[in-house]
Amino acid sequence: MESVIVAIDGPSGTGKSSTSKAVAAELGLSYLDTGAQYRAITWWMISNGVDVADPLAIASAAAKPVIVSGTDPSAPTITVDGLDASGPIRTQEVTSKVSAVSAVPEVRARITELQRSIAAAAEKGIVVEGRDIGTTVLPDADLKFFLTASPEARAARRSGELKGKDAADVAATREALVKRDHADSNRKTSPLAKAADAVEVDTTDLTLAQVIECVVALVEEKRVAT
Asked: Does the pTM of the predicted model rise above 0.85?
């Protein structure tokens, strides 16, 4: 089957990562979590004393960290200056600051270049997930998807309380998600947006298996057509 590039965009909590990894694994494609790269450079900034409230300071340091992403969907990895960053990049501190760091044009230019080089090197094809893949990073992707879900569903998934066991936790998570959505959608450089030719999938009332099935079917259909 022909190589294929699949772009999957959308806000947090829509099932984007789980869907992307599963689709890549099922179709024998590479996988790239671009959000992890922005988290990685944010973690590096914090760890190296860069003032993440100062866009000029962030811009001047954007080219310094060496970020390497492993693209095996069954075991994706990310290192910064040779150190495993898969755990540290998921802290609340990084989560609260990643939008500010990723909004700096120099950071986006650096990471976008990295993402394009990884996609170009994927011989069998790749599934790339993020917020601006279909619009900015890979506008010529063979297939583009934009995953959405209600804020309530997303908050429940992100907090891990699928049955609403901790209402306060879900409410706080929802507020944080909405705040980040606003920041990512309104940044000047490569905002979170649905590409005009993307297939929108509302995952609110769908199981993960149903979302994966939908995406895989469309990718296979595209492969056959080409």
From this structure: yes
